Amino acid sequence: MNAVKVKLCSxxxxxFDCGDIAPEKKCWCNDFPxxxxxxxxxxxxxxxxxxxxxxxxxxxxxxxxxxxTALNNKAKYLPKTTNLIEGIDYYLENGNYVxxxxxxxxxxxxxxNGCRHCPY
Length: 120
Fold this sequence. Notes:
This is Cysteine-rich CWC. The chain is of the alpha+beta class.
C-alpha cells in the first residue's frame, strides 16, 4: 500500500500529494536543494510552486556571486544529489543540455571546458 498525505499548497491553494509519511519514505521535494525552510514560506508548497520558489531563490543567490566569491560559495557544501532539475540546474537548447550557474556552483570548481554559464 502506497500511502500519501494530501496537503494544501500555502501559495496557490491546490491539493497535492506529499510522500513524506514515514522515516523510510521521502517526499518528492527532497530532490530539490535544501535552500530554505518552511518557516520562511508557510506550509508545504505544491511541486510547481516549490520549483518556482527554489528557482527564484537560486537566481537571487547566483546574482550575488562574482568570480572572486565563486570558489567559496555555499552551494558546493549542500548535500550532493544525482537528480538534475530542469530550470534550476539546466535548460534545454536545441535538444542539448545547457548547465546553469547553479549547477557549476554546486560542483565547486571550474571544469575547464569553457562552459557558457561558468561563474569561475
